[in-house]
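Researcher: I'd like a structural prediction for the single chain below. Treat it as a standalone chain; there are no partners to consider.
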Amino acid sequence: MKKKLSLLILLLLFVTILAGCNLPSQTQDDAAVSAQTLAAQTIEARLTENAAGQAGDDQPGDDTNTQPTDTLTPSSTPEPSATMEPSSTPKPTATPTEKPPCNQAGWVKDVTVEDGTQFGPGDTFTKTWRLKNTGSCNWNDDYDLVFDSGDKMGASSVEDIDMGKVEPGENVDISVELTAPNTPDKYKGEWLLRSDDGKEFGLGASDTPFYVEIEVVEAVSFEITGTNVYACGMDTYVAMRIKNTGTMELESKGGSVKNMDTNAVTIYLPWDTPFTENDDDCPPMGINNMEAGDVYWTTWNMGSSSGVDYKYEVTLCTEENVAGDCYSQTKTVSIP
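Model: Treating it as a single chain, here is the predicted structure.
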């Protein structure tokens, strides 16, 4: 910028000198004035132009004595912090489900003959299990029921079963005809299924057998489970608590009573309504039958007896007037 200004000043001086040297006096003067005026205007215009340009061109890096004023940088408005997205609960990784074996069963329930059901010697019955096909293959009529262990109860080692087509997830009832053994006791028989390709299988992955469990008791039997002595009017009564542990209904009572001091025996006549609901009914309320498993009381009128021990032989029968099948038990009772 300084170089440009110096050149303009030199140009103005040159024009002034030239005008003074070459023009007549008046004309020269006017011309000189005009030239000077033109030169001054030119310089003024240049100066104005340069001043404007200088104002725009001055930068902190220019070779000037003035230190640039620090421009305050406006503080930036802090950007809002990003809202944290709630962490999603990680979804459990799906565990591949193992395919069940081709043949596998699950137990649903005992349709008939629950565990511990009582039968008389030689009684026949049908045992039915409800099973579920928990495998991956269909069952069909070529599948068999096979005896595994325990008590066979008159069945064959292999029993044909008609069950049609049983798809995975479906239930089926499987039955077998059995006969209770002749000796009173508890019995259990275990069974498996056998597929059409000869593979034996049972319940669950361990092929556990399913079973039938019964108790064989005498067809006519009972237990005396308690006694009571009480007064009814002027007489003394002895009551005995009876449980029918057999498989047949009991309908009548007979028996005898022995005086343990004198050995005298009194025979009781058949009683067609031998049972009561309570141990001290007065007079005794007659109930004429006792189903298998029922519990009632039966009584004897001992008159005015006291201070004597008596041995009772109690006989209960399946028909009235001490007829049909009968069973007897004995019990000694002290009358105070």
